[in-house]
Amino acid sequence: MRPHVLASAAVSIDGFLDDASPRRLVLSGAADLDRVDAERAGVDAIVVGAGTVRADDPRLLVRSADRRADRVARGLGPSPLRVVLSTHPVDPAARVLTEGRDVADTVVLHGSPHEVLERLAGHGVVRVMVEGGAAVHRAFLGAGVVDELQLVVAPRLVGEGPRFTGTPASAHLLETRAIDADVLLRYRFGPADARWLAEACSLAERCPPSPSAFSVGCVVVAADGTVLATGHSRRDDVLDHAEEVALRDVDRSDPRLPGATLYTSLEPCGQRASRPVTCAQHILDAGIGRVVMAWREPPLFVGHPSGAARLEAAGVEVVECPELVDLARRPNRHR
Ligand SMILES: NC(=O)c1ccc[n+]([C@@H]2O[C@H](COP(=O)([O-])OP(=O)(O)OC[C@H]3O[C@@H](n4cnc5c(N)ncnc54)[C@H](OP(=O)(O)O)[C@@H]3O)[C@@H](O)[C@H]2O)c1
Ligand SMILES: [Zn+2]
């Protein structure tokens, strides 16, 4: 299964990734750099091209000690695997090779984006962050392997330098967020069901860990693509299920609910010990007509999971996307 790819870049207003000077140009502000650090902490591998290593000499490490400790508590290494794409040996003095060797390994790979991702998948990598530079972004976007793009526009003009480019494709805007003076634009690519289900799987990564319950993410989307609600396990309370918290936020009289789709990383529960109302029942009560899920509930905490069967018996269309099962399982690695 191909890993999920998040491409991340900061650009100037005029679309440049860097200026033409040999000095490293940091485009976005401290708050955005901290956000990028959090994104790094959420992946299994960070990919850059040799051009970026030569130009910027990055370390490619999770900077925050708290985030590194959190990764260790989740059974991961303190910082993701560092991957440099190059057809040549990397300068042995590069910081990606000399620094942080106690917290992350570095590998040098070559090949097409598909081949590189296949090799990484073979090493258990499920989430990848591609950080650039210009040639690598263009190659990954052109190969159609980018699932999510996080583009930050910094408030300056540069005039000359490497540009952020791709090849013709439509992107779907998920979110715009002002971060101090920077603006984050979040896009996804691909067909609607895969996009929204991958987004639900990303929300599952936000769940506070629990030894006795699953980490699940959920997005409720109207037929016109409007997000009606999002949720993840234990969001407001330790007993919360993702679908339950998402549906808590929707107006039950909203006329868009019968035409809406509920995307969930794990099959909605059909039996439950923690609370009297199951998520399958919450979905039926909300009148939602379609459910898309990645992972069928393994029979760990209940005898015979029957959420999907209950929904189908009540006339709800249930679609399973097993190609996203690794992504759905990732925050549940201890299972
Ligand atoms: N603003 C941002 O967010 C951001 C982030 C990162 C970088 N940047 C900027 O981007 C610029 C660097 O961009 P760039 O286009 O010059 O370089 P790049 O994309 O970082 O790296 C290009 C190099 O990577 C290697 N490469 C790429 N794809 C490969 C593949 N599939 N297999 C094997 N090797 C592969 C090749 O190296 P070899 O020649 O060694 O084979 C190629 O020359 C710098 O100015 C940097 O500051 C900006
Ligand atoms: Zn549930």
Beta fraction of the residues? Answer: 15-25%
Oligomeric category: single chain
CATH topology of the largest domain: Dihydrofolate Reductase, subunit A
Full CATH superfamily name of the largest domain: Dihydrofolate Reductase, subunit A
Q: Please indicate the count of domains.
A: 2
Structural class call reads alpha/beta
The first-level CATH class of the largest domain is given as Alpha Beta
Q: What's the shape?
A: globular
Low-confidence stretches: none
The helix/strand order is EHEHHEHEHEHEEEHEEHEHEHEH
Rg for CA atoms: 21 Å
Q: What count of helical segments does DSSP give?
A: 11
| Ligand names | NADP nicotinamide-adenine-dinucleotide phosphate, zinc ion
Question: If you average the pLDDT, what whole number results?
Answer: 95
Specify the helix fraction band.
25-40%
Compact overview of the structure:
It catalyses: 2,5-diamino-6-hydroxy-4-(5-phosphoribosylamino)-pyrimidine + H2O + H(+) = 5-amino-6-(5-phospho-D-ribosylamino)uracil + NH4(+); 5-amino-6-(5-phospho-D-ribitylamino)uracil + NADP(+) = 5-amino-6-(5-phospho-D-ribosylamino)uracil + NADPH + H(+). The protein has helices at residues 30-41, 50-56, 65-73, 95-98, 113-122, 134-142, 192-204, 242-248, 279-286, 307-313, 325-329, and strands spanning 4-11, 45-49, 81-85, 106-109, 127-132, 148-153, 172-179, 182-188, 217-221, 227-232, 261-266, 290-295, 317-320.
